[in-house]
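Methods — Computational structure assignment.
A single polypeptide chain was analysed. Its primary sequence is given first, followed by the predicted tertiary structure written as C-alpha cells.
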Amino acid sequence: MNTKLTIKLDGNVIARAKNYAKKRNTSLSKMIESYLDSVTKPDQSGIEITPLVKSLSGTIELPVDFDYRKDYTNYLTKKYS
C-alpha cells in the first residue's frame, strides 16, 4: 500500500537528488523508499550493509575453513618463483 508523505528539504538537496534519480532512470520517491527500507530493515549481524553489497552477496561460496591469507601467500609464491 502506497501512502503519501510530505517532507521539507533544502532546495539544493532536492535539485541534486532529482538529477541523480533522472540519471538512474528512477523516481525520487523510489530512491527515498529504497533508502528508508535499507536503513530500517532488521539486520541480524549488527553491521550495516549497503544495497550494492547485498546485491553481490552469495556470488561465491567458500569452505568454512577457507584461509584467504594462506591462499594468497600460495598465489604470490607461485607467481614470483
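Note: The CA atoms of residues 63 and 71 lie 12 Å apart.
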